[in-house]
Amino acid sequence: MSLNTSSNALAEKLQSRDATREPLVVRNILIAIALIFFLACLILPLILVFVEAFKQGMGVYFEALINPDTLSAVKLTLITAAIAVPLNVVFGVAAAWCVAKFNFRGKAILTTIIDMPFSVSPVIAGLMLVLIFGTQGWMGGWLMENDIKILYATPAIVIATIFITVPFVARELIPLMEAQGTEEEEAAIVLGASGWQTFFKVTLPNIKWGLIYGVILCNARAMGEFGAVSVVSGHIRGETNTLPLHVEILYNEYTFSAAFAVSSLLALLAIVTLILKTWVEYRQEKLNRSQQDSSV
């Protein structure tokens, strides 16, 4: 009886595997479509950026990179990322801690607010800042009376970048913290640890790879943001242009080699981000495997 039952179970398992296994021709077609899409939409444009950047020689390439306007755009981009990313790390960790570790009234509202930049167009986000800080905006009159300049200056660019990049750290940490639960934190508190000691000694080591992953994505988006920054920057050459805006200006002026040269900097940033992202995913997967093996 048991032999017949095991045989039937094995037959059903093999049948279910065969039912979900696509024919070889179908698999090859799907793989070919995926490869063509990957090459046409990702690899080929990336190659063309570098080909066009070096088309007129190394001299023209480096001349475009050391141009004062380019250096100003690089400086502003780095300053913006240096301010926006740490602030979003602090907010993202705090928000993820609250959402994942505590139950409170308004939790769903907080989660919705975190996801808002994903659903709002960056251009709309820039227009919202114009309505707030513009001369005809809610705070425009007060800002002009006190000689405070936010719109069409670095503060507006930083604020727009912070708004757009808010979800990246929090959204990486919330599911990770929820999966880890609260048992270790509760044990630390029972043993006499304070809230900060629990965070730095227990929570932070457990989320470090997820945090690094979120920081990488947040930094990449901060440096590559175009829509919201374009609205609030004023496009003042050499002052309020980040790298993406500078590329647009060069391209509109038909200086294609310079535009592609500056674009190559953003492409290199994307490649470095992809490498770091892959490395962090590998380390996190390796850590998860080791934890599963230790639990077994």
TrEMBL record:
Part of the ABC transporter complex CysAWTP (TC 3.A.1.6.1) involved in sulfate/thiosulfate import. Probably responsible for the translocation of the substrate across the membrane. It is found in: Cell inner membrane. Keywords: Cell inner membrane, Cell membrane, Membrane, Sulfate transport, Transmembrane, Transmembrane helix, Transport. PANTHER family: SULFATE TRANSPORT SYSTEM PERMEASE PROTEIN, SULFATE TRANSPORT SYSTEM PERMEASE PROTEIN CYSW. It comes from the Bacteria. InterPro entries: CysW_permease, MetI-like, MetI-like_sf, Sulph_transpt2. It holds the Pfam family BPD_transp_1. One of its GO terms (molecular function) is ABC-type sulfate transporter activity. The chain crosses the membrane at residues 29-51, 71-97, 118-138, 150-170, 211-236, 256-280. The complex is composed of two ATP-binding proteins (CysA), two transmembrane proteins (CysT and CysW) and a solute-binding protein (CysP). Its main location: membrane. One of its GO terms (cellular component) is plasma membrane. Residues 74-277 form the ABC transmembrane type-1 domain. It is a multi-pass membrane protein. SUPFAM superfamilies: MetI-like. This is Sulfate transport system permease protein CysW. PROSITE patterns: ABC_TM1 (PS50928).
